[in-house]
Amino acid sequence: MSIAELHRKIEERSAKLAVIGLGYVGLPVAALFAQKGFSVSGVDVKAERVDLINRGISPIEGKEPGLAELIGGVVQSGKLRATLDYADLKDCDVVLIDVETPVNHAHIPEYEALRAALKSLSAVLKNGALVVIESTIMPGTMHNVVLPILEENTGRKCGQGFFLGNCPERVMPGKLLQNLAAMSRVVGGDSPETAAAMRSLYSNIVQSDLDTADWITAELVKTVENTYRDVQIAFANETAMICEALGADVWRVRELVRKSPGREMLLPGAGVGGHCIPKDPWLLASSVKGLDVRVRLIPAARDINSFMPNHMLDLLKTRLSSLKGRKILVLGYAYLEDSDDTRDAPSSYFIKALEAEGAQAMVHDPFVKEYAGDLYEKASGCDAAVLMTAHSEYRQVDFKRLKAALKNCLLVDGRNFWDKTAVMESGFDLVRLGDFSRQG
Fold it and tell me: Which of 229, 356, 386, 406 has the most CB atoms around its CB within 10 Å?
């Protein structure tokens, strides 16, 4: 099958699609294409997840507007089916790959899941099929990793026996469907013709710009985008710590700075988590390892943001000098508000820091099953409460009940979440990240 024939099948929506990896990205992508009339097969390594999907149940919890209903509808219509078996993909014309691409403790990319998916796919890949990597990858990965694996294991040449593209995802938990529709995408192909076919494919679900490019440009756009955010957050966090040292309020400073045109300042906070921002800067930095490029800003920003959970411990110690034997209520475990996503959650590092000081963490999170339950029962006898995640449920906290449950009326707010005056008028000692202006 030529790329022109494949392009025609895409435009007719007769092309059969597959999605490998049915997590936060792959599942909503598969469901949206199914909604548009494509026949979609999804592969995942988790049997429980496959079973839930085939029963029309979304395995993704947290607030995801419209996702559960969408999955239920496309499964019932027969347009989406999940499987554990790659053999079910043998007739697929387009295969999207959405597997995790983490970095190790040395900040080096680890592609075990990607390599495994590519090798398994190679055994059944239809001649003339299009393979698209949606996972975020280190610039150069398409040429140095993906291409060799597919060519070696299929015995075919790219551009002849198969076609290859890179279209990095741009989604955030809590806004999966919204982001997939509204966010622009870069479609990088092995040729302009492949990129054009990809553009036609994604126009079915993306309502924003679809810019065509080559592989390296698409890879760079995604990693640069998230690295930019990481650097900007690091600036906000360092400014917060400067304000604390000088007895100022970073939130008031930020408000006034942003009044100057073009002086946007992101939000400081208790830490940066998730599968993207803590990882993608290292993917970008790793792409020039061994080349004559001194990468200095990226590691510095990562160091600042990785330190923030420890800084939350320091803030707690401004009121409780010794944490040994203390019991601390941790509000929020997921890395993002109103989500069940715990990947690289700042709370996990904060809890480790607490335990290293001899303290016990009582964790509450309404979206993470392991930590759900009655907030006030968990607060009983705790020496302080530390807000790590800005779940909307915590807006409804009854401060009178919380005060009665806690041993000490101490709150540490790592997200500027609660109204400062209201909390203090409720009788709490409030320690707020970036604000020592009225805290002694």
Answer: 386
Local structure of 3: helix, strand or coil: helix
The CA R_g of the chain, rounded to the nearest whole Å, is 24
| Helix 67-76 × helix 47-54 angle, to 10° | 70
Number of domains in the chain: 2
Whole-number pLDDT of residue 440? 42
**Residues 18-32: pLDDT tens digits?**
999 999 999 999 999
Same domain, 193 and 305: no
Question: Does 336 have pLDDT greater than 80?
Answer: yes
101 and 49 share one domain: yes
The pLDDT of residue 392? 95
Is-catalytic flag, 276? yes
Query: 336 with 279, same domain?
Result: yes
Residue 243 lies in a domain: no
Please report which residue ranges of 187-279 form alpha helices under DSSP H: 192-202, 215-246, 250-257
Does 437 have pLDDT greater than 90? no
List the structure tokens of 292: 């004559």
Which of the following is catalytic: 158, 276, 327, 382? 276
Residue 89 lies in a domain: yes
Positive or negative: CA dihedral 265, 271, 276, 277:
positive
The overall pTM is greater than 0.85: yes
Contact 194, 164 (CB under 8 A): yes
Whether 22 contacts 34, CB under 8 Å: no
What percent of the residues of the chain are helix, what percent strand, and what percent coil, each to the nearest 5?
Answer: 45, 15, 40
Torsion, Cα of 432, 433, 435, 438 (10° steps): 30
In the sheet that holds 429-432, the strands lie side by side as: 360-364, 327-331, 384-387, 410-413, 429-432
pLDDT confidence tier of residue 416, bands split at 50, 70 and 90: very high
pLDDT at 439 over 80: no
**Identified catalytic residue from 16, 79, 126, 222:** 222
Structure tokens at 341: 């996503």
pLDDT for residue 357 is more than 70: yes
Helical pair 192-202 and 3-12, crossing angle rounded to 10 deg: 10
Q: Would you state the pLDDT for residue 345?
A: 97
Could you tell me which of 365, 427, 353, 411 has the C-alpha nearest to residue 390?
Answer: 365
Q: Which domain holds residue 198?
A: 3-213
Decide if 222 is catalytic: yes
Dihedral of CA 82/85/89/91: which sign? negative
Distance CA 3, CA 134 (A): 19
